[in-house]
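User: Could you go from structure to sequence for me? I need the amino acid at each position, not a summary. Structure tokens:
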């Protein structure tokens, strides 16, 4: 089977690594990829949203399966493009169409979807510039902290959590005035949920679903969950507090109603659903939906998955996911993310990375890297994810941190407290 995987981050390296294990694979391409994916696949210099160029490549190379890593091409309709006019009738696609991708592409749509299908979430309202007074009134009714979310995609930076009411009002106006571009033309204001966050990942063919695993990631850049939000500084899987009873509630109240709701609304959804959840005193609530795997969660979920992933993807594409059989490694898997100095603000690129040859007993997934003149260089804010197994979470963390200390690049930064709150 010939596979084209879209994306260039740690998520895509982890997916490529897992796909590479498949006995069914004949050739794997990654567009555009990074220095890590080129170790297990052939990188191709194509933009993930250049659908015309992607289609030409799929036709030229006779690709059997398209696996979409990031959200942008899904929200922009990559599946719809390839399925239009029956141009690629035999191409299997992992990722929903534009209608299903609205679960991530519009927070207002996601909230209304949850409301329609009785899925537990925080109280909320959606405002535009014309209804800002309604938003201010909502802020005045709820207790701090105040949660403001740009309705559209904002590269993971469109969520503000503020303690001061007056600051929340000012930021609401700033968002509606273009702070996050078009993504903030609408703003969702939510009541703050106090609890512990986690994520659950499923694969669905639109009729049934399979739970691939759970993970807890760490979004703040600083120890003790301080500083600015990032794309993720580390992750742990499985989640220790997500016991059998909690997971049962998640399936009954959230996963099943979501899949059934999509089907009831005529949305043919084939791909991943990432449930961003809050555990509030043992009760699960949905914070957000994403329509792809998470990063850095993929770097701990994929290693634990005992499956030929291409077989899973094919059964999903054919609407036969109920036949799928797979297992999960019982051990813990953790990942620690090495980032560039200044991230998630401004940072330099092109710093030489050394020491990878000294890593033992861990998997290193590349997030923001490139090779130039034979040297491995930084090429992003999040640079490398060091993932390790352990019989206990502490054992896995000790292994990752041992290897993190062997990797060097100018300005390297990482959190030293991943998993310490569990």
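Assistant: Here is the amino acid at each position, in order:
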């Amino acid at each position: 089977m010939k596979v084209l995987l879209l994306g260039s981050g740690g998520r895509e390296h982890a997916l490529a690594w897992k796909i590479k294990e498949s006995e069914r694979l004949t050739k794997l391409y990654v567009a555009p990829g990074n220095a890590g994916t080129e170790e297990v696949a052939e990188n191709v210099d194509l933009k993930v949203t250049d659908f015309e160029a992607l289609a030409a490549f799929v036709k030229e190379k006779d690709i059997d399966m398209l696996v979409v890593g990031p959200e942008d091409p899904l929200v922009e309709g990559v599946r719809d493009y390839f399925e239009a006019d029956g141009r690629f009738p035999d191409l299997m696609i992992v990722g929903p169409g534009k209608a299903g991708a609205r679960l991530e592409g519009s927070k207002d749509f996601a909230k209304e979807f949850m409301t329609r299908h009785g899925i537990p979430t925080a109280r909320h309202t959606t405002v535009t510039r014309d209804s800002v007074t309604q938003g201010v009134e909502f802020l005045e009714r709820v207790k701090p902290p105040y949660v403001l979310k740009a309705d559209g995609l904002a590269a993971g930076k469109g969520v503000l959590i503020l303690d001061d009411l007056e600051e929340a009002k000012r930021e609401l106006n700033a968002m509606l005035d273009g702070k996050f571009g078009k993504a903030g033309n609408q703003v969702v204001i939510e009541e703050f949920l106090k609890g512990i966050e986690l994520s659950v990942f499923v694969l669905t063919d639109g009729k049934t679903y399979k739970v691939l695993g759970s993970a807890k990631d760490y979004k703040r850049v600083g120890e003790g969950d301080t500083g600015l939000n990032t794309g993720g500084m580390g992750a742990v899987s499985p989640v220790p507090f997500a016991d059998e009873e909690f997971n049962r509630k998640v399936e009954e109240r959230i996963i099943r109603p979501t899949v059934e709701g999509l089907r009831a609304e005529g949305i043919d959804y084939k791909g991943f659903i990432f449930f961003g959840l809050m555990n509030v005193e043992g009760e699960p609530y949905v914070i957000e939906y994403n329509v792809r795997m998470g990063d850095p969660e993929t770097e701990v979920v994929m290693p634990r998955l005992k499956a030929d992933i291409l077989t899973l993807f094919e059964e999903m594409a054919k609407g036969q996911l109920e036949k799928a059989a797979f297992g999960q490694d019982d051990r813990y898997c953790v990942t620690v993310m090495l980032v560039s100095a200044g991230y998630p603000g401004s940072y330099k690129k092109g710093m030489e990375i050394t020491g990878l040859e000294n890593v033992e007993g861990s998997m290193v997934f590349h997030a923001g890297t490139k090779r130039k003149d034979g040297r491995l260089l930084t090429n992003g804010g999040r640079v490398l994810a060091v993932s390790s197994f352990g019989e206990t979470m502490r054992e896995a963390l000790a292994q990752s941190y041992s290897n993190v200390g062997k990797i060097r690049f100018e300005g390297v930064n990482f959190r030293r407290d991943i998993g310490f709150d569990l």
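One structural detail worth keeping in mind: The mean pLDDT is 95.
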